[in-house]
Amino acid sequence: MNLEILGISVLWTFLFGYVLLGAIDFGAGFFNAYGILTGKQRILSKVIQRYLSPVWEVTNVFFVFFFVGIVGFFPKSAFYYGTILLVPASIAIILMVIRGSYYAFEAYGTKGHKGYAFMYGISGILIPASLAIVLAIAQGGFVSMVDGKPVLDYWELFTNPLPWSVVVLAIVAVLYISAVFLTWYANKAGDNAASELMRKYALVWALPLIIAAGGIIYELSFHNEKLFDQILDLWWMFGISALLWVGTVWLIWNRKKYGLAVWLLVGQFAFAFYAYGISHYPYLLYPYLTIHEGFTNPAMAQALVVVFILGFVLLVPSIYLLLKLILFDKNYIKGKTEKL
Amino acid sequence: MFFDDPVLSSRLLTLLTLSFHIIYATIGVGVPLMIMIAQWIGIKKNDDHYILMARRWARGFVVTVAVGVVTGTAMGLQLSLLWPNFMELAGNIIALPLFMEVFAFFFEAIFLGIYVYTWDRFEDQRKHFLLLIPVALGAAASALFITIVNSFMNSPEGFDIINGQLANANPIAAMFTASMPTKVSHVIATAFMTAAFMLASIAAFKLIKGSNHVYHKKALHLTMKIGLVFSIAAALIGDFSGKYLAEHQPEKLAAAEWHFVTEEGAPLLLYGILDENNEAQYAIKIPLALSILAHGLPNAEVTGLDQFPKEEIPPLIIHYFFDVMVTIGGLMILLALAYVIGTKRGWNFVKAKWYRWLIVLSGPLSFLAIEAGWWMAEVGRQPWILRGIMTVEEAATTSDHVGLMFVLFAILYLILGIGTVVVLRRIFKNSPVERELEQLSSQGGERQ
Ligand code: HDD
Ligand code: HEM
Ligand code: HEM
Asked: Do B199 and B175 have their domain in common?
């Protein structure tokens, strides 16, 4: 395997990690706000707090890893994406800053008021939406070169149905992933009321998810044919993904093995995410930038890979410790340990 | 208006984000060490006061870390958004430490998560203490790696430019550049110093406000001693930084010193203003001191601005930034020294109100010194973003909307800054030291 493929695989994997962890986080914020509005807050907020408090910074680092890594492995992407994304990415940053800091103010400080929880929930929907637009931009058609500089066509971006479908998919996926995970986490915590409520949400969002995903593939058929053909070539990966989806829904429906359901969900999104990534190959930004032209020099690539491996060796045991001592610790999960 | 100029507004937005992030980053680097020291003393002496100190500092720390994390994320993205051409070039040579930094963050974030939620978990307190080590290491490593990147911008090495193209990139050599040793050590030492004085300010403030609890006295005592050590270290390393500049970036030192003409036995100018002939007026002149700062010898020759083309001379305003930093550095040493000697000898003034007010000032002043230091270092690199290779102008984005983003971020940081203060005040108001100490001792009773 050559280094650029290795590099993009590593980055894609971390992006996948961020998508999953971020989705749980964003969705949880939304459900929390929704719960407050509908008076079900007490059922949910405890479980959500328990899960989020120790991990949100870790989740954030997955994102930082991705954008630092992509500039490292593919410096040209800084030029292209840096230039065109100023406005969309700045808006995403502002939302993330508000969300992260106010979450912390709330969790470590004292309780705020409802308006805040509402903002927190809304930003959980807007952030995935604004990040998802980048994926739509990446598959081409919205950027043109003017005097050797990339320019983003906002009008086209806002009037084309494709970005909007990607946004819808992102939001639905966030809600679905989060609901399935929290069904399980609440169940583990022995919190039946919360688990039942989340189960209901999971089932509600299951069907819209598949419809949204199918819709995008359909739209790609006339937006970017090359990408569409490559997606068709990988039909079996998307097929497996769909089967795993069926499995998750079946387990949740029958109130069986929520833990397994979560793993199937991870599998479902992994297959779809990697299949999409592979069909994007070799473009980082269609049709201007491929992973081959954009790749850094060999010396840097090797150094990055070595550091990555060393870093990984350091991180895996640490994450294991976090899961064991906190997230899945019997007393912690049930809310019996006090915080700082 | 500056808003129409992407270069100027990118500079201003970078200035804004970094000046804001550095406050939290400094706390993030410095405070873990303070918590560690307090907790260690608490365990060794079996003294609840120090344990509580560690605990309360940690409680405030998680809030500032959160703001540090989000503003850092903003900074990291903005580098690519505002300086795409620079990041493209830099990505090829200096991406390695940036990448390492992410692992340092990871490490810190994970263990901080564990540390915060495992108070009272372990029978053996020392186990909990151990969890703090990776937090402190991760924070210091973040500072190390990001400062390495900044050093590279000041003294780029580790590659060749052949026909305008980058060649022979050597990522390791790019990390260990001429400015790296002084820069990294100065940044880390000043972070420790600032964290110590910040905590000392709080303790002194409590004492002034009438709480005569021995808890605050112990806190003040501890932090002033640490502050003394690191303020001396900061000045010593700052002196080395000056020598580095004299050798490798003489234009920055000359601009900071308003040293226009190359000469031997150069005097050091403090403050003053420039008249129309570029002569310093009203300045305090210390004979030979600049030669000593630059080369360690009173008669050494110091390169002046006459050696550089006009367009490569940094803004002369950095003179004031430099003076502010050095003045504060000197004052802090005096302040801490007086405290340490004064308490040993039982001199009365260390307990006087006016003196404690001075200590209250030490925290904000240290932050001011940090800001002034960075402004001097970064503005003093003008017009270069990568010294001698790429100018700020070539590096900046061509996008039109930077001015608007500046306004949005300015509002955002204002809200965040106020939010931090409000939340921190509320946390500590709601659980005063006295009550927490009672709780701690009754818990301790149960445990035995
Ligand atoms: C509490 C903060 C603080 C204090 C008291 C000092 N410094 Fe400092 N200084 C910094 C905080 C700082 C900094 C923020 O950490 C800088 C900015 C960039 C850097 O590398 O460190 C810095 C940079 C910096 C530079 C420029 C390095 C460069 O651009 O490469 C010099 C020459 C000095 N310092 C010298 C001194 C001297 C002689 C001091 C005598 C007391 C001193 N500093 C005290
Ligand atoms: C990857 C590393 C860095 C990059 C790419 C970077 C880039 C820049 C650029 C392009 C400017 C504007 C140039 C100017 O106006 O002088 C700037 C200014 C500034 N930077 Fe850096 N910098 C880096 C590291 C740092 C660090 C670590 C700090 C410390 C917090 C810092 C503090 C500042 C400050 C305070 C300014 C304001 C100077 C001004 O008035 O413009 N920088 N930086
Ligand atoms: C160009 C300059 C800088 C950039 C791009 C930058 C980037 C970042 C990023 C992306 C984060 C968030 C990481 C996370 O998700 O956990 C962060 C946090 C942090 N940064 Fe910065 N940083 C810069 C300057 C500095 C400097 C000069 C220091 C130290 C002297 C520093 C120390 C820290 C620390 C300790 C944190 C962790 C949060 C905390 O403990 O407060 N950073 N930075």
From this structure: no
Instruction: Give the Cα separation of B293 and B246 in Å (integer).
Output: 9
**Does residue B385 sit within a domain?**
no
Q: Does A55 touch chain B (CB under 8 A)?
A: yes
pLDDT at residue A208 in the model? 87
Give the ligand 1 atom nearest the CA of B381.
Answer: 29
Is the residue at B47 inside a domain?
Answer: yes
Q: Would the CB atoms of B121 and A325 count as touching at under 8 Å?
A: yes
> Distance between CA atoms of B384 and B255, rounded to whole angstroms?
14
Ligand 3 centre from A13 Cα, in Å? 23
Instruction: List the single best residue of A58, A90, A310 to mutate versus B (max B Cβ within 10 A).
Output: A90
Rounded to whole angstroms, the Cα distance separating B267 from B289 reads: 5
Ligand 2 center to residue B218 CA distance, Å? 38
* Interchain pair B87, A79: CB under 8 A: yes
Q: Which of B33, B142, B144, B237 to mutate to test the pocket of ligand 3 (most atoms within 8 A of CB)?
A: B142
Q: Is B194 in the same domain as B68?
A: no
Measured between CA atoms, how close is A204 to chain B, in angstroms?
33
Domain boundaries, chain A: 3-327
Report helix angle B48-82 to B402-430, nearest 10: 170
Q: ipTM value, please give it.
A: 0.84
Tell if the CB–CB gap between A101 and B416 is shorter than 8 Å.
Answer: yes
In terms of DSSP H, where are the helices of A38-113? 41-73, 75-84, 86-108
Q: How confident is the model at residue B46 (pLDDT cuts 50, 70, 90)?
A: confident
> What does each C-alpha distance from A279 to A137, A231, A274, A282 come to in angstroms?
15, 5, 8, 8
| Alpha carbon of B137 to ligand 3 centroid (Å) | 14
Shortest Cα–Cα distance, B25 to chain A (Å) = 15
Q: Is B82 in the pocket of ligand 3 (CB under 6 A)?
A: no
Q: Are residues B341 and B414 in the same domain?
A: no
Residue A220 near residue A162, CB atoms below 8 Å: yes
Please give, rounded to a whole number of angstroms, the shortest distance from the CA of A37 to a CA of chain B: 25
Instruction: Please give the pLDDT value at position A111.
Output: 62
Under 8 Å CB pairs connecting chains A and B tally to: 234
Atom of ligand 2 nearest to the CA of B146: 27
What's A294's DSSP letter? T
Residue B410 lies in a domain: yes
Which positions in chain B touch A61 (Cβ < 8 Å)? 102, 105-106, 109
Q: How confident is the model at residue A337 (pLDDT cuts 50, 70, 90)?
A: low
A64 and chain B in contact, CB less than 8 A: yes
Residue B436 forms part of a structural domain: yes
* H or E element in which residue B390 lies: strand B390-391
- Are the beta carbons of A2 and A9 closer than 8 angstroms? no
Which pLDDT belongs to residue B144? 93
A274-289 pLDDT tens trace: 888 888 778 777 778 8
Residues of B in contact with A49 (CB under 8 A): none
Specify the CATH number of the domain A3-327.
1.20.1630.10
Domain boundary among B380, B401, B418: B380
Show which of B380, B414, B433 is a domain's final residue.
B380
Residue B84: which domain range?
1-179+390-448
Which residues make beta-bridge pairs with A152? Answer: A143
Nearest to A72 among B95, B118, B412 (CB): B95
Same domain? B344 vs B422: no
CA nearest neighbour of A40 among A149, A117, A132: A117
Q: pTM of this prediction?
A: 0.89
Count of structural domains, chain B: 2
- Do B359 and B407 lie in one domain? The reply is no
- Of A60, A63, A33, the closest CA to residue A48 belongs to A33
DSSP class of residue B312 equals G
Q: At A236, is the pLDDT very low, low, confident or very high (cuts 50, 70, 90)?
A: confident
